[in-house]
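During the no-cost extension, the postdoctoral fellow (Dr. R.K.) reprocessed legacy sequence entries with the updated structure-token encoder. One reprocessed record is reproduced below for audit purposes.
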Amino acid sequence: MNTSDPGHREHASVATYIKVALVLTALTGIEVGAIYIRALTPILIPTLLVLSLAKFSLVVLFFMHLRYDTRTLSFIFVGPLLIALAVFLAVIALIGAGVARA
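Re-encoded structure tokens follow.
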């Protein structure tokens, strides 16, 4: 009985997971450190959002194994994620516009 899926690649080694965990730890350290650097105050929020997006991507790709699944499953995950992101940004823009008017 052949259970291999042609679109399903073999998973990464333990060493890869350790490297990803170390990168996630470093990114978290950078996030915490960035809060204490006064020069970053004007760009603090965008910086933290980019770092969080990088961490989210690594977790999804490696620990949720999306990197090793078929493209169809990736699109099923990414499509609604993009819609949710668009709604989030629209709500933030609306709240910002409401605050600016008040």
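The helical segments are 14-35, 44-63, 71-101. The chain has two domains: 11-68, 70-102. The remaining legacy entries will be reprocessed before the final report is submitted.
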